[in-house]
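Hello,

Our lab assistant flagged a job as stuck in the queue for most of the afternoon. It eventually completed. Since we weren't sure the result was trustworthy after the delay, we are filing this so someone can double-check. Below is the sequence as submitted and the structure that was eventually returned. Let us know if re-running is recommended.
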Amino acid sequence: MGNPKGEEQRRVLLLCGDYMEDYEAMVPFQALQAFGVSVDAVSPGKKAGDICATAITIKVESTDRVKLCLSCSFIYFVSPYSCFNVCVWFGFLYGRTYLFGLQAYTESRGHNFTLNATFDEIEFDEYDGLLIPGGRSPEHLAMNASVVELVRKFSDSRKPIAAICHGQLVLAAAGAVKGRKCTAFPTVKPGLVAAGAHWVEPDTLSVGVVDDNIVTGVTYYGNPEFIRLFLKALGGNISGSGRRVLIICGDYVEDYEVTVPYQTLKVLGCHVDVVCPKKKAGDTCPTAIRDLEGAQTCSETQGQNFVLTADFESVDASSYDALVLPGGKDPEVLSLNEDVIVLAKQFMEARKPIASICHGLEILVAAGVLQGKKFTGYPGIKAHVVVSGGTFAEANPIDRCVTDVNLVTAAAWHGQPELLI
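-- returned structure --
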């Protein structure tokens, strides 16, 4: 985005709480930074360096139910009703949000979100905008007097405020939606209407609505449009790049490392295709949530199901301007796929930009394209990649990024704002 000529860098306050929705916090947090906006993430009663737990929520469409049923086809053919019970049972067993036409949903633990500022030290005048993620945290933030007073200050000053999903509950508590058009997750409608809002019924989960300084969104599915509208409210100018970007992933790709680049590049106006060998558009790849929690290596739990946007077999490297290789568990399998290796070589030979995150380097090692290059990656793969003939830059700090001509590498998802600049 950059900042309007002659003006200082924009500063945004991200209002967090425990069990805020994972994507609705991290994607805006990293995307805004990638576009040159400084973001301070705070939570009442917590300090810089403290953690907010996040929650992942998954909406499974009817087609996904069929796929799940096919995965346990023995039970399905015995009894579709039994299969439904089993699928729902597994959904609750693993804490995933499976709707299947049910009246409500459940959730599971997401990443640990590290705050970078202290709530009690906030100086309202230092910020140009406010962003409130959804999840369950807004229910509690809306009852916090300090939070409500802070939101009122932003509202009274007409500074841009963006709220998504359930975040609008905080706006309602502060009296900021009276007489305003806004949308939200459908179950928030009664509270907003009671607060005097003019409800805009969302026809999809990606809808964004603007009324003066208030930007509202329905769910993280609409993050690209939601973030684009907020950046515009901040005075930024985003021109669609028209670039075509390819992301290659596989089962148990790192959750943030596929979703943040995908949605951030969409904000910019790029056409982004996400593909996986032996899968087609509409198929899903399960993701992995990886966090550094003090152990010798990262912890891992299952994350969202990422929906692929294109068929792998139809990919032609010549039709894309850049390649992104996320990390996770999948690169070690993808590095054995000859078609993936050929694609990586084609991008490198054409000197097109290649971005590798974390374990994504394993694909480039297998492609033999790192000779003489300088790069970084997750510390645990150093021994694997140094044999490639390149120079490994230590992943210290963990958000380190390294650029060598057309190759941009990040040690982990923590460095994605710099990677995506």
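-- support follow-up --
The delay was a queue issue, not a problem with the job. The result is valid. Confidence is low (pLDDT under 50) at residues 1-6, 60-100. The longest strand covers residues 299-307.
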